[in-house]
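re: that chain from earlier
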Amino acid sequence: MAGRTQALSSRGVFVFIFALSFVHVNTNSTDINPCASQAEDVRNTTLLPHYLPPAKPTLNQWCESGLVPDVIDAPPPLQMRVRYSDLSVNYGNILTPAQVRSPPTQLTWPGEQNGLYTLVMIDPDAPSRQDPTLREFLHWIIGNMPCCSLGSGEIQAQYFPAGPPKGSGLHRYPLLVFKQPEYVIFHEPVLTNKSFEGRPNFSTRKFAHKYELELVAGNFFQAEYDSTVDELYRMVEQQ
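^ sequence. v structure.
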């Protein structure tokens, strides 16, 4: 009986410690500095508390989509929960470019209390999945994020909205979170969202290998052309 009581007590301690690894950050709060100078395009992003780990994705969801092996060698161990306003990203569901014009409003993934993380979003289907000569088109990178505070991270590539060309069909858009071994000094130039420069032919694999990043969580959606893409291209070309 004493052994069973000790086991239950140990289990309770484990659950309590595990729960502490999920951090609630609301970047809309007046009590939190959103670091607007560094994180202007994520100032409305909220990280919600979850005291149980997100469901593990199945191998099929990543393999059937082709993201394994097109982008990564194996599925992320855990699910990242992503929302654009009231719309959830759910392993390949279809959203429109208009719906993802702004950065996600909510991101949630399990993390370590003192860990640092890098978020990467890309399009492996540029200009089309049938002819991906620009694979991968880089959409977003934020590095050196404390668990789990995007507003305190360092933007390496500003959020660039999904812009699949007309007639190119569905494009896949994975969002991937990597754990860093330590603080990283990134050597790539910081990219704005006012230019295509530096975004085509990015390699998530090479980037992760270069900085010894460990993939821990992810999710993805699909999108195809709508009329807002034309407006996006016009805005970039006018810069």
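The chain has one domain: 2-237.
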